[in-house]
Give the backbone structure.
Amino acid sequence: MAGQTLRVIPLGGLGEIGRNMMVYEYGDTMIAVDVGLMFPDAEHPGVDLIIPDFQYVLDNVDRLKAVFLTHGHEDHIGAIPFLLREAQVPVFCLQLTRGLVQVKLKEHRLLDGAEVSVVEPGDVIDVGPFSVEFFSVSHSIPDSAGLIIDTPLGPVVHTGDFKIDHTPLLGQHTDLARLANLGDEGALLLCADSTYAEIEGYTPSEQRVAEALDRYIGEAEGRVIVTTFASLISRVQIVLDSAAKHGRRVFVTGRSMVNNVGMARDLGYLRIPGNVLMGVNEMKQHPDSKTVIICTGSQGEPTSALTRMANGTHQQIGIQEGDTVILSSNPVPGNEKSVYKNIDLLMEAGARVIYNRLADVHVRGHASREELKVIHRLVRPRYFLPIHGEYRHLVLHRDLAIQLGMDEDDAFVLTDGEVLEIDDRGAEISGTVPADYVYVDGIGIGEIDDFVLRDRQRLADDGLVVVVAAIDRHNGKLTRPPEVMSHGFAGPDEEASLMEGVQQLIVDVLGGEDTAIDWSEIHETLKDDVAEYLHKQTRRHPLVIPVMLEV
Amino acid sequence: MAGQTLRVIPLGGLGEIGRNMMVYEYGDTMIAVDVGLMFPDAEHPGVDLIIPDFQYVLDNVDRLKAVFLTHGHEDHIGAIPFLLREAQVPVFCLQLTRGLVQVKLKEHRLLDGAEVSVVEPGDVIDVGPFSVEFFSVSHSIPDSAGLIIDTPLGPVVHTGDFKIDHTPLLGQHTDLARLANLGDEGALLLCADSTYAEIEGYTPSEQRVAEALDRYIGEAEGRVIVTTFASLISRVQIVLDSAAKHGRRVFVTGRSMVNNVGMARDLGYLRIPGNVLMGVNEMKQHPDSKTVIICTGSQGEPTSALTRMANGTHQQIGIQEGDTVILSSNPVPGNEKSVYKNIDLLMEAGARVIYNRLADVHVRGHASREELKVIHRLVRPRYFLPIHGEYRHLVLHRDLAIQLGMDEDDAFVLTDGEVLEIDDRGAEISGTVPADYVYVDGIGIGEIDDFVLRDRQRLADDGLVVVVAAIDRHNGKLTRPPEVMSHGFAGPDEEASLMEGVQQLIVDVLGGEDTAIDWSEIHETLKDDVAEYLHKQTRRHPLVIPVMLEV
């Protein structure tokens, strides 16, 4: 029976189901699609990265035959080193994606052992019962692909992140003809991007951004400073073309922007018009009216080039009256505050600032509702599984499929770790596999758990108080005045008086003891009494750490 | 000279300049407009409230003659108890605002001493050289007002929060005729709401929400659950009217919603059609198809009614298949995550959920750009000061005024604490007064400072490690094995091995000592060595607290 069943499992995405990783299984063969990571937010203090839980995959590592990567964004490839250090498995992806993966593997010193093969749209990789074909899609990074995963039960279309752009800048269309053709043959399952299932209509073309950017670059009198995502190569192309058209030169600054522009140029993804690119050290001699700067910092990252310019701490570039700064990006949820803070500072320094709320200087990389309908109509699948979205996006995408005529029993909303089983009799959610998140903090992977994060949150809320009592082992009395210290709990004046109160309290608590002491009891009593006293005085709940020494 | 100068000072707003409080001074007289608070975000761990810095006002308390409140939202009245406990000063506001202020004063046991007078639009209060007239404005709470502050140099228009709504639900228009009339006479200064200076066009009317809500309530088959801001009385009115029209009864739940509906009803702001309102305990016997529930929780507040329904922990109301939940609100910046989490949970429980991204079930309470232009054209002020917005909003609003023909030297962008001085020769930014934020944490007001918050943030990021070493006073050697404990630093397995390593390190550090000990030096060494060891092992930076006892 298991031999004739296709199993589909979303894994990882921190609420965005299947965003980071998906597993497909048939018989003894397992393949993974994408191995990405998420960035932590305020609910994960101190955590560096969040990666999918590989437990299920590693428990079945002898069955894992290949990993397919749809495109080079962090949330789809960022965790690949963490998987490859645990499992030897061949990886397949398009050229730019491979370039970005190699950078990661090098950082993790995994380049030697890893086998990452470049494919092109149309290529088919056979893995046991699966034949996996890459097809081109439009998205906000070159070399984005969807997958047609042929199985003995019929083909599965896995869109990856995509939009439909009929006038893309770098010739990267979503291959609607291939999908139509597949639909004619009969598709078993569609797994499609749901990120913008809330948004009515069509996502605008990159062409619209080209027009807006060209207008602002054309009308600027002083320098133009443009920031965008470093991986959004088409945006860089727009700026290069517009700068050349208006007789300006382009200077690139910010580590990841310099790296990505270099790689995209070397791999042939960027066309550099004439000698438009110049080194940042030549900028001083170049007139402002002939200058465009492309830099990092679209998300207000603290050490990025734009943030340093905004703060006045950039070594080469200080913002001045007459500068036009363009944020060709949207703030990713969670980054709004840092982004808008930068805008405020840039304006205070005298720049004109153009950003997403004021002009069409950015378009999204995901399909809106009308585009999703096109895909459904072309593929006409037997079953539908919305992926890549929070729960409400999946529900809205499922409802959209039902509006288009799908039977509600054939459309499934899964959460991470749930297993969709399909055989020739039907499809059902058959159970779950482990699919937690794994926190990376420093060099610890999975050492930090939610319990530790709760401790951190508590420390953040009210700080801590350490009380130190040295007690005579013979009579249980304090051998000297107790010491009390606090961190993150109270301001200096308040602290002094509170700490005095705590010292007195400890003297009172321990003063009455004699010889026979129950140490664990007195430890708890001291902790509770100090906590209660401080709460009464301040209505705060610091962590109280009693240190008791028998001397 | 000072006698002939008007001084205008924005105070408090956590980046939203003058949102919480403004001060106007002429000669020996000072008046304040609004005394509100801000809610902290992730940058202020553990802080309960943020209030304006009253230092400048209290330093000049003998000159402070009156406080005027424009409307009853927290960011305009929330800090009034904190001011009134320091200063005896008469307060003037409209009726509903007074009702909301009294609730606060009662909680703070300040009701007896406070003098809060009710005025109506058109009323004029004379305070020394000032004559302050209230005028009606549309906003998202009844009894919102702007102020015309007449001064010996001419009248100042202070809009407060406002929009222009020609078809408001509760008859609350912005009094354009009065402003036109004032403009004819010649206005000195316009201080106007800049919150939506980024948004093109007009803010839609509350009427549009009425139509959308009525449609969803009309077409629902099961229960309808509506959440909104408790102070958005017009929204409650819409729901009551629509429920009555469709033969449904309305049940109110959630403390602040119950309180506000009760107060609005008692004061005559709500028209209750027939016997449409019923008690929550009667709900069980009432058919779902005839039920509407109005509840708190529009911002995903953890203990609100809707959040408890979403989590399955509400005592009376469990979400079921067939329920329609309407979020008639936008998430306030910072609350997105909690709001969307609730939506996901409500959908998982089987409800249909209608929210801002899907339908016109909310409109904003602030004027967009075309409305701002109307105000500028009517008032035609000599000078302009954009208020109530982050820096970029103020800049955009100033630029709008300049586009409308104002001289750029006559439009001023201030930050909190900056002083705009106007006399009969001109206007200029003349200096600053103290205008920090004051954090309220528990019962401490201003005890917690940014230094404490940095400590908290650090504790949140990497936790702490306490090392305890008992040292023989005679020879400086450890008298027993050192103790090490950690919080929020490492997971259980990791901790055990790390703590062993730290113990050994302490033995090594202190092992070599003999008799003559420099205590402060050894304390620092221990701290640094442990921190360095842990960083090397984990790439984390916990706070290391050494406790050393001479025994």
Summary: The two ends of chain A are 70 Å apart (CA to CA).
